[in-house]
Amino acid sequence: MANEQIEYIDPDSHFYLFEIPFARCSFGGILYERKSGGFDLYLSMEPSDVEHLDLAKITWLRHQGDSNKETFIDHYEDTKMSKQLMSQAKDRLEDWLHTSLGA
User: Fold this and answer.
1) Which helix (H) or strand (E) holds 58?
2) CA-closest candidate to residue 33, choices 69, 86, 90
3) How far is CA 11 from CA 70, 91, 99, in A?
4) 96 touches 43 (CB < 8 A)
5) Are 50 and 25 in contact (CB under 8 A)?
6) What is the side-by-side strand order in the sheet with 15-22?
7) pLDDT tens digits for 37-89?
8) Which of 9, 16, 20, 40 could form a disulfide with 31 if both were Cys (CB 3.0 to 4.6 A apart)?
9) Cβ(50)–Cβ(58) under 8 Å?
10) Are residues 29 and 20 in contact, defined by beta-carbon separation less than 8 angstroms?
11) Residue 85's beta-bridge partner residues?
């Protein structure tokens, strides 16, 4: 689950999952909706396929995550899910991967 100090709207069933290709791999992004409003973007290692990365990068990614293998990336103030928000989240996750992994 996402950050346990922030309250989310039913984080076990109310979330938006997407996948992006990056560096011959596939990465899962997840958006959780906060009870207080807005959405939080996380990298989720569960659906990610990182077999084409070198071991050091895989290890680094795993150490960034919490006990649920999720890494906080960004927060959005949007009040509802939209195509624009999903597009922004995908672009932000790709930017974060490029900066973090240099691939």
Assistant:
1) helix 55-64
2) 86
3) 13, 23, 28
4) yes
5) yes
6) 15-22, 25-33, 39-49, 70-76
7) 999 999 998 878 998 999 999 899 989 988 888 999 999 998 899 999 999 99
8) 16
9) yes
10) yes
11) none
